[in-house]
């Protein structure tokens, strides 16, 4: 259940979260859809979403890197990319109120998933676990995730454990056909004795939890 240096490869994901000025959200999204190809020319984008519920005027995007040297090279290339700097970054930065980034690893027992089809919604769940890392809470957390998967109402996209940022944070991304489909599935899961038992065991290690319902941007590889 270890993550970070003990995992089988050096691949990691940078999770970037931007709070956009409320009056500029539409303009920002349009700019991203128009110019994101300038950024994806340098490294792989996993997904780009805007918040619908649980937060307002927020976007989340996730980038994949082979290792830290790869990220350094990409950042240097972006700094020298006149198209990226001039057509997007210089115009987009004034629209953003706050930026936050984290480095996270996909937990070893989870493979990156894909949505079953286009047109659904994503649930981004952030768990702040007790200090101690997966050695303390990993087994119970994994059991709770698997219990929800086994109900069949939702599709797991990925489970990410932070390496830089607030430690002992786990981000879980789920895909559902619609908000109503998700609500019905959750109601059914909460009546499943296996889910209840697994969650009850895992919650002993939980400090806090936050959920967001996310809508993929037009440019997002995951739609």
From TrEMBL:
Quote the SUPFAM superfamilies the UniProt record gives.
Dimeric alpha+beta barrel (SSF54909)
Residues forming the NIPSNAP domain are: 13-111, 122-221
- InterPro entries the UniProt entry points to: Dimeric_a/b-barrel (IPR011008), NIPSNAP (IPR012577), NipSnap_domain (IPR051557)
What biological process terms from GO does the record include? Answer: mitophagy
Show the GO cellular component annotation of the record. Answer: mitochondrion
Q: Which family does it belong to?
A: Belongs to the NipSnap family.
Q: What is this protein called?
A: NPS3A protein
Question: What organism does the UniProt record list as the source?
Answer: Aegotheles bennettii
Which gene codes for it? Answer: Nipsnap3a
């Amino acid at each position: 259940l270890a993550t970070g240096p003990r995992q089988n490869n050096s691949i990691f994901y940078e999770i970037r979260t931007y709070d956009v000025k409320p009056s500029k959200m539409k303009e920002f999204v349009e700019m991203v859809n128009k110019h994101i190809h300038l950024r994806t020319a340098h490294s792989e984008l996993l997904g780009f979403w805007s918040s619908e519920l649980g937060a307002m005027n927020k976007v989340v995007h996730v980038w994949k890197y082979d290792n830290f040297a790869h990220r350094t090279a990409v950042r240097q290339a972006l700094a020298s990319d006149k198209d990226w700097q001039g057509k997007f970054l210089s115009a987009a930065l004034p629209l953003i109120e706050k930026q936050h980034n984290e480095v996270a690893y996909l937990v070893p027992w989870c493979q990156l998933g894909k949505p079953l089809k286009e047109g659904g919604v994503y649930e981004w769940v952030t768990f702040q676990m007790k200090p101690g890392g997966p050695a303390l809470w990993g087994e119970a957390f994994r059991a709770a995730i698997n219990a929800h998967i086994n109900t069949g109402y939702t599709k797991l996209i990925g489970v990410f454990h932070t390496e830089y940022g607030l430690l002992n944070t786990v981000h879980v991304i789920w895909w559902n056909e619609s908000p109503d489909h998700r609500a019905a599935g959750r109601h059914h899961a909460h009546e499943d004795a296996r889910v209840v038992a697994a969650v009850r065991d895992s919650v002993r290690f939980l400090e806090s939890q936050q959920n967001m319902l996310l809508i993929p941007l037009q440019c997002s590889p995951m739609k």
